[in-house]
Amino acid sequence: MSMGFADPFDTLLDLQRSLEATLASDWLQDLTTSRGPFPPINVFQQGDDLLAIIELPGVSKSDLQIQAKENSIRIFGRKAVDYPEESSLHRRERVSGEFDRTLSVPVQIDPDGIKAEYRDGILAVFLPRAESDKPRTIKIT
C-alpha cells in the first residue's frame, strides 16, 4: 500500500466548488444578510456632526426603528415582499424578513438631537456630535 499526498490545487478547487455550490443553494434564501450586510450604510462627517445614509428599498417607514446610544446607532425592522395570491414564483432574488444592524461611530453622539428622514427607500440619519465630545480651545494665560 502506498501513501500519497493530495494535490493542493485539487483540494483548493474542491473547496471553491463547495463554496460556490453553497452560495447557489436555497438554504440561505430567507436571511436578509445572506449576501452581505443589510442594509448597506454610508457614514459621512459634516462639520462636527455625522450623517448616515441607509439604503432600504421596499421597506415601509412604519416597519423601521432606530435606537441610539453613546457612540452607536441600531437600525432594525422588517422588509416585506408580497406576491399576488395564486401566483407561481419562478425566481426569487428580492429578500424579505427582519434585519438588524448596529453601527459604531467614532464620536459620542447626542441621542436627543438625532433626526431621521425617509424618502424613496433612502433613510438619512443626522447624528449630532455631543457637546461633551467636541474639541475645545483652551486659552493660554
Your description of this structure?
There is one protein chain. This protein is mainly beta and 141 residues long. Helices cover 12% and strands 33% of the residues. The protein has 1 helix and 7 strands. It has a 4-stranded antiparallel β-sheet with strand order 1-2-7-6, with no helix packed on it. Strands 3-4-5 form a 3-stranded antiparallel β-sheet, with no helix packed on it. A hairpin with a 2-residue loop joins strand 3 and strand 4. The chain starts with 7 loop residues before the first helix and ends in a 14-residue tail after the last strand. The model is unreliable at 30-34 (pLDDT under 50).
Care to give the gist of this entry?
The protein is mainly β. It has one helix and seven strands.
Would you spell out the secondary-structure blueprint of this structure?
Layout: H1 8-24, E1 41-46, E2 49-55, E3 64-69, E4 72-79, E5 97-104, E6 115-119, E7 122-127
Family: Belongs to the small heat shock protein (HSP20) family.
Protein name: Hsp20/alpha crystallin family protein
Domain SHSP: 32-141
